[in-house]
């Protein structure tokens, strides 16, 4: 199963990760990736950078070590209204926006409230993907949320870290999420959620899971840079001129 894009990576700017973006790009190149997304935590996560960090990503090169770099964020869902902790004017300038539920920002509530928060986030129109939805601390109505994501052209993430060291108990939930996504035709994204450069491009657990459920390749937006860029174009985002017509 081919995956050439890592849509979820962190740098030391997140406050609890340990590598620079240059080190992440070197690791991505060594793994044979064609593209990765820089998605540090938005400001309400303890230790995360000021919003200027995200507004200033325009200074980043479009390629590092031969690997395309999308400018992004892992924003925090802050309430059941589906609001996130980064201003819409900044979000609009980013290539890629993940929105996730994190315990230090959104205290776990009931499945009904989590479902409401996720659906409203999806419907907000400002996020491209829902991050690590397998977290057992945030139960929700899988089918309702995944169908809503498909209807609003928002991706559901299968997170490699959730299938290993992080968010223990996520694995069976991720499998169910993948099976429902397959059933309803929801597209997914795949992220390493790397907090150290060596984990960039690590999709080993994702690939095992997707193979196990016989997940359709055509629903995986990260199979190739162009498939992700095409998705972002569908969402009305402008593709950087450096990527237009690029021979991947």
Automatic annotation (TrEMBL):
Binds 3 Zn(2+) ions per subunit. Keywords: Hydrolase, Metal-binding, Zinc. Zn(2+) 2 binds at residues 16, 41, 195. GO terms for molecular function: phosphatase activity; zinc ion binding. One of its GO terms (cellular component) is cytosol. Zn(2+) 3 binds at residues 74, 102, 132. This is Putative phosphatase YcdX. The lineage of its organism: Bacteria, Pseudomonadati, Pseudomonadota, Gammaproteobacteria, Vibrionales.
